[in-house]
Design a protein that fits this description.
single chain; 481 residues; alpha+beta; Methyltransferase, Cobalt-precorrin-4 Transmethylase, Domain 2; Heat Shock Protein 90; globular
């Protein structure tokens, strides 16, 4: 790794696929060298978390603010550090490791691919990377993770009759330019993204590489595109009553597919006229982030081993349905999504990493909660998640939940001020006499008494609501408009 590559890494932010590890700890007396055992443990935990999730890179000798401080280790300590993923993890992990000298400072760069196994540290704890966090998993999720790892094979399989010339050179070049990668494209796709094996004279391409960059992806997978169908009315009709208004089939390598589909589909997202602040204004019938996030997730996380169906987007007069082949992979469940739990698991980690670096996937685990926020801000019903046969379905309704007066009043409170349950309760109360009880909060927010009391007290402290009288369990809204 040279200085240019290091510079590119330091321009990136910590996230799902990159982290920085300091060789120092900071106490009142100033900076002190970390004990070799402590640094090795930190390193092993982070690498295990990345391997258990989507893979990634770790730069050792860099602070969280990206200042380069190096690794002040002797030769024996450095070797023990490099070997720590093998010596402290079960089963052993074998990431690639490069040494870098920057002036008189020594750094290490580790690269790890998403593993087919679940790695745990000494003592039995299992870590899993989610955005910038590396939490340990409870026992039931570990077992689910082990089961889900069995589905990794499809995107990783090498396609023996595929050659480098089967890739679209322009698509590969556009990707390397987007990520500002100066190295040879074969080296980038092979070393950093694990999409091909260049150890032999003829590079072996994975299915993920072909799905992402093939000149003709449908030679390798017959239904890897997106079908958009627009219906007249609120139901699908068949035969003589067939009510299909528009059908578009999008066929392109995944590195271009999403942009092509979004560009055409957004032409069919209607604007509607609403009364806002005493003026009539135009607003799209669905929040842009919500429907695009549902579509991106469907492409990134579908089960590509189910080759008989594409991702589908059905548009009705009252709703959009985004339909993805394959049920949610454990440990993700429909119920967790409905409850806005911050969960992340990639059925296709090789695909996900490329799509993330192309800008389609942002902070892992944050997309679904933001979909709820955007739908709520528009005054629309929350997203709905369900399964139909072997399809996972996300439904977005365009029917307003609140009238415009309620929505206008509600939107004075930002999402960082109050949570989704509090907003829903306030909207209900605003349109039902501007008062509510603790029992109503429990029923509407679907929480227990302690949670209801705690969240109501928060609103009291913020000056949004107040007890009708001292020690009352009934509250009135303070109309702040």
């Amino acid at each position: 790794m040279d200085g240019e590559e290091l510079g590119l890494l330091l321009k990136q932010e910590r996230g799902q696929f990159l982290d920085f590890v300091s060789a120092y700890e900071y106490k009142k007396g100033g900076a002190q060298k970390k004990a070799a055992e402590t640094l090795a443990r930190d390193l092993a935990r982070l690498l295990a978390g990345m391997a258990n999730a989507d893979g990634g890179a770790l730069l050792v000798g860099v602070e969280q603010d990206k200042s380069v401080t190096g690794i002040p280790c002797q030769a024996e300590e450095l070797q023990a550090l490099i070997q720590s993923p093998q010596t402290t993890l079960t089963p052993p992990l074998h990431p690639s490791c490069e040494k870098l000298n920057l002036g008189n400072l020594l750094l290490l760069k580790f690269e790890v691919s998403p593993s087919l196994e679940v790695h745990r540290v000494a003592g039995g704890r299992t870590f899993y990377r989610i955005a910038t966090e590396n939490p340990s998993l409870p026992a039931e999720q570990i077992q689910s993770l082990k089961e889900s790892k069995k589905t990794f094979f499809y995107e990783r399989q090498y396609v023996l009759d595929a050659a480098w010339d089967d890739l679209d050179g322009a698509a590969v070049d556009a990707f390397t330019e987007r990520i500002k990668e100066p190295r040879d494209p074969k080296s980038v796709l092979g070393h950093s993204y694990h999409l091909l094996d260049s150890s032999r004279a003829k590079p072996s391409l994975t299915m993920a590489a072909l799905l992402l960059f093939a000149r003709d992806p449908f030679r390798w997978h017959p239904r890897c595109g997106i079908d958009f169908v627009k219906y007249e009315g609120n139901d699908r009709q068949h035969g003589g009553a067939l009510n299909v208004v528009k059908r578009i089939r999008f066929e392109a390598p995944l590195s271009r597919l999403i942009d092509e589909a979004v560009g055409r589909i957004k032409e069919h997202i209607r604007e509607r006229t609403i009364l806002h602040d005493l003026f009539f204004r135009e607003r799209l019938e669905y929040p842009t982030f919500a429907w695009q996030e549902a579509l991106v997730n469907a492409v990134a996380h579908r089960d590509y081993s189910l080759s008989g169906a594409p991702v589908e987007m059905w548009m009705f007069d009252d709703r959009i349905e985004v339909r993805s082949p394959g049920l949610p992979p454990s440990p993700v469940t429909v119920e967790q999504l409905r409850l806005q739990k911050r969960v992340h698991f990639s059925r296709n980690p090789l695909l996900v990493r490329v799509l993330a670096d192309l800008g389609y996937l942002r902070e892992m685990g944050e997309g679904v909660p933001r979909m709820f926020q955007e739908m709520d801000h528009y005054g629309l019903r929350p997203p709905e998640f369900s399964t139909e046969g072997f399809f996972f379905v996300v439904t977005l309704h365009n029917t307003p939940v609140y009238d415009e007066a309620t929505l206008r009043w509600l939107n004075q409170f930002g999402v960082s001020t109050i949570n989704f349950r509090q907003r829903r309760l306030l909207a209900y109360a605003y349109s039902h006499g501007k008062s509510f009880s603790t029992a109503e909060y429990q029923r509407i927010a679907e929480v227990d008494r302690d949670t209801a009391y705690r969240e109501i007290r928060t609103m009291v402290k913020l000056g949004i609501v107040a007890p009708l009288k001292p020690k009352s369990r009934t509250y009135k809204i303070i109309d702040k408009l």
